[in-house]
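Hello,

I think I submitted the adenosine monophosphate job twice by accident. Can you confirm which output corresponds to this input? Input:
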Amino acid sequence: MLWRSLEQLVFDNTYARLPEAFYTKLAPTPFTSVPSVVAFNAEAALLIDLDPQEVTRPEFARLFGGSLLLSGMEPLAMLYSGHQFGVYVPQLGDGRALLLGEVVNERGERWDLHLKGAGRTPFSRDGDGRSVLRSAIREYLCCIAMQGLGIPTTQALCVVGSDDPVYREQVETGAMLLRLAPSHVRFGTFEVLYYRRQHEHLKVLADYVIGLHFPHLAKRADKYERLFGEVVERTATLIAQWQAVGWAHGVMNTDNMSILGLTLDYGPFGFMDDYDPAFICNHSDVNGRYAFNQQPMIGLWNVGCLAQALTPLVAKEALKASLDHYHRLFQDEYLRLMRAKLGLVEEQTDDRSLIDDFLHLLHESHVDYTIAFRTLGSFSSADGDGNDILRDLFIHRERFDDWAVRYRDRLRSECSRDDERHRRMNRINPKYVLRNYLAHLAIEKAQQKDCSEIDRLAAVSRLPYDDQPGMDAYAAPPPNWGKHLVVSCSS
Ligand code: AMP
Ligand code: MG
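Support: Only one job matched these inputs. Its output is below.
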């Protein structure tokens, strides 16, 4: 493996070669104070062949703090629009982020270098173009957590902080997050061209996405139809994975939906603590449009918006046919994951009710979602074993007992072996998730210039399925103060 210095990174900026209507070229606006590296993810550096030692050079903080550009970079703000909380907004675009350029690594993989918090752009509307340290750290940590969980996501290379004041509900400090993804094209990137009736451009965009990211479709006569079908599938399976791990995105607007089916644009996201299907992680979402249990339906609504944007390229019947698959694709993946979370190998007809009834028990007893499933892995199917540790999680113990009898019978029906199932379940039921309060503690320390907790939390989050010695505190339920932290869009 050849490590590269910053100056040796290889750029090939395909987006900058698209028609000018797709973006505005401009440079980042640096901080006025001296930038410093707050967090650095060596694993993400490997994706672009970057030598992790490069983080120690002063140029690194300057580069990802927006005051230095590398030759080969062509920074630009991408144009997009989107449906926000159900309402079409004709122009959004990168209002505080810039695509610095695309790095191609030794394996030929392409990675966007996307700098969030890089200053105002023509798409900033009333915004200041900045991100606060708090939100940059949250996105950084959650990218690592999702990657560790095996859920498709954009990745985070680093957070660079500053002393520049940024005004939100209170004065905070500004930071920039360097994000990596094979593409930052969103549903909204298609929508803006459709609603502006730039249908030739729409075709250019579709061909561009297919050429780089769906090359197996490039020569097909029905390539646009197939592209849509694959986006529907990726979206449905992504959301099934969110549901299985108890995660809510919080702002599933179509401008935050990746055409590659990646988890994109981390805002007020949250992992559930106590199981609550109506969990709303975004304090500003008063009507619960993006509540946890709405996500699968919203995913369908969002691919519906993409379908509308593709009508100049694909017959409506074909788009409808793909949309009709969404529900089955979601259900199949969700059931597959939930069966696995229960340690079931075979498919049986009443699995769904076994799963739903367990979730119902968790809800009525306010049981922690992550802890419940991890503890279920140790379920003993031996006669007379009351499974006390698991049972004690529930307020209504006799209802748990009734369910446990059904579960035991179900396990026996497929000759499940406790020890083998335990190992299998520990590979799908994480021990550690990025609880809000854990991120909050890491942020508070970082605001006092101690960034060590970010690294510790990142390290725990990278291996969420492993028992990590000495790290049990990170697997504990939140303290009471940490259960109801308020997170909103304004970050
Ligand atoms: P988000 O909620 O972060 O997905 O952002 C939605 C839209 O608002 C996007 O067009 C962002 O670029 C823009 N935006 C969010 N925050 C800011 C900000 N502080 N300054 C400028 N634009 C912003
Ligand atoms: Mg966004």
